[in-house]
């Protein structure tokens, strides 16, 4: 993958455009004949150059930037955090003491590595994280909607909004436990045979195989944070016992 992110400093702009299209990264790192980093170029740099009448058959050394941020292979964690706090820095070349390119780290890869609890090591193959999702979609349900804010192999966190006079199904899970914290609104939570009043700040623990339900019997949205811990977080890990909206009941897997 590293080879797709670097190019010789004297190749044609049109060839860099091909490489940008292949690597899907919107940047390449320019190196000299010794593999030392001499500049970086983004798709934005090329667009601006073309508007300024630079030709695609000109060499890339006419437009690459020599003013860029980078990391040394021994750079500390604090330096990486500091550099990525800049909205202008989306990737960082990683070089050895001779400024030879040895790795590349994107901001998204850095965040994913932290979420996955991967030990900090700038020699790590960050490209293996590329299939993972950092931003998750919003999913609507008959009772409201939810968005996953955190999803790794060991945990998932969601923000869940339940519309007025709506409720999740009475359900249980086999492969995960859940922890709820109410953020806004009021209602009721059902845990097996127990009914609990809920309100902002209320914490509820749902162990595996415990029947549970949350009910919004108010006239405003009920919002809560849900943290799941376990070995599997698929929406099919559910047995439903009662559902206001006529969805599948006991013995049939379905969404929440």
Q: What does this molecule look like?
A:
This protein is 14% helix and 36% strand. It is mainly beta. It folds into two domains: 2-129, CBS-domain, CATH 3.10.580.10; 138-242, Jelly Rolls. Strand 5 (91-95) and strand 6 (101-106) form a beta hairpin. The longest helix is centred in the first third of the chain and has 11 residues, at 13-23. The chain is elongated.
CATH superfamily of the largest domain: CBS-domain
Q: Based on DSSP secondary structure assignment, what is the total number of beta strands?
A: 18
Gyration radius from CA atoms, angstroms = 25 Å
Report the CATH architecture of the largest domain: Roll
Structural class, by secondary structure, is: mainly beta
Strand order across the largest sheet = 7-8-9-17-12-15
Low-pLDDT parts are none
Mean pLDDT: 92
Helix-strand topology string: EHEEHEHEEHEEEEEEEEEEEE
The major pleated sheet works out as:
6 strands, antiparallel
What is the CATH first-level class name of the largest domain? Alpha Beta
Give the key terms.
single chain; 256 residues; Jelly Rolls; 2 domains; 6-stranded antiparallel β-sheet; 4-stranded antiparallel β-sheet; 36% strand
Describe the SSE topology.
Blueprint: E1 6-8, H1 13-23, E2 27-31, E3 37-42, H2 43-51, E4 71-72, H3 77-84, E5 91-95, E6 101-106, H4 107-115, E7 138-141, E8 144-151, E9 155-162, E10 166-167, E11 170-172, E12 176-184, E13 187-191, E14 194-198, E15 203-206, E16 212-216, E17 222-230, E18 239-242
Parallel strand pairs: 1-2, 4-5
Antiparallel strand pairs: 2-3, 5-6, 7-8, 8-9, 9-17, 10-16, 11-18, 12-15, 12-17, 13-14, 13-16
């Amino acid at each position: 993958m590293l080879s797709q992110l670097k190019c010789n400093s004297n190749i044609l702009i049109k060839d860099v455009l091909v490489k940008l299209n292949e690597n899907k990264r919107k940047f390449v790192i320019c190196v000299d004949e010794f593999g030392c980093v001499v500049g970086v170029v983004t798709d934005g740099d090329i667009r601006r150059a073309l508007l300024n009448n630079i030709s695609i058959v000109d060499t890339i050394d006419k437009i690459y930037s020599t003013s860029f941020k980078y990391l040394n292979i021994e750079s500390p964690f604090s330096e990486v955090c500091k550099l990525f706090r800049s909205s202008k820095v989306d990737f960082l070349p990683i070089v050895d003491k001779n400024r030879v390119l040895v790795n590349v780290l994107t901001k998204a890869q850095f965040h994913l590595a932290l979420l996955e609890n991967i030990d900090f090591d700038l020699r790590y193959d960050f490209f293996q994280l590329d299939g993972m999702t950092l931003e998750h979609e919003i999913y609507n349900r008959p009772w409201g909607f939810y968005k996953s804010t955190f999803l790794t192999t060991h945990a998932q966190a969601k923000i869940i909004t339940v519309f007025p006079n709506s409720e999740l199904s009475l359900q249980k899970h086999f492969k995960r436990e859940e922890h709820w914290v109410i953020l806004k609104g009021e209602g009721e939570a059902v845990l097996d045979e127990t009914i609990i009043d809920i309100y902002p700040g209320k914490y509820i623990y749902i162990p595996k195989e415990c029947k549970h339900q949350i009910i919004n019997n108010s006239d405003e949205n009920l919002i809560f944070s849900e943290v799941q811990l376990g070995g599997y977080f698929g929406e099919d890990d559910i047995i439903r016992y009662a559902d206001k909206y006529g969805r599948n009941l006991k013995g049939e897997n379905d969404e929440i």
